[in-house]
Amino acid sequence: MELTPRRLWPDDPALADVLTLIQKEFSGMDGRIAPPSSMHRLSLERVTEQAATGEIWSIGTPPQACVFLTAKPTCLYLGKLAVTTNARNQGLARRLIKLAETRAKALGHTEIQLQTRIELTENHAAFKALGFNEVARTCHSGYDRPTSITFRKPV
Questions:
Q1: pTM for this structure?
Q2: Tens digit of each residue's pLDDT (9 = 90 or more) over 70-89
Q3: Residues 6 or more apart from 112 whose CB is under 8 A from it?
Q4: DSSP per position, 45-96
Q5: Are 42 and 62 contacting, i.e. CB atoms less than 8 angstroms apart?
Q6: CA–CA separation, 23 and 38 (whole Å)
Q7: Cβ atoms 136, 144 nearer than 8 A
Q8: 24 three-state secondary structure
Q9: How far apart are CA 105 and CA 101, in angstroms?
Q10: Nearest to 63 by CA among 126, 127, 2
Q11: Rounded-to-integer distance, Cα 77 and Cα 104, Å
């Protein structure tokens, strides 16, 4: 497998594979997190829009890992970080996070940020091991308890 991250543009046919990857790998959250994952609102049109207005990077053909990058006023936001089950523990998420750090610096940011759900404690541990620090807990509309944790990492 080619391990070099590749940027996907709005006309890239691999965007459909990225959508499938995210849907498959995020499906394990169904029934585990509340509210349900925003992945359920993701469509090929929205993925294409992300490629046009932000960035999508993938590793492998077809994609075995992906991440969405979105420039925010104070940081570069990482979303939809996913790795196929059969490609886990090979450092693909770490490669995509390193890429995000490089992109953040190129865009003039000093931090990268991501969010994960309260219930996904294995993600909390993984992000902390990768140098992220918890900076906030937030709740989705209609909930009276925190549902997400925001993590940041200086670059």
A1: 0.95
A2: 999 999 999 999 999 999 98
A3: 75, 76, 77, 78, 97, 100, 101, 104, 152, 153, 155
A4: HHHHHHHHHSEEEEETTTTSEEEEEEE-SSSEEEEEEEE-GGGTTSSHHHHH
A5: no
A6: 10
A7: no
A8: helix
A9: 6
A10: 2
A11: 9
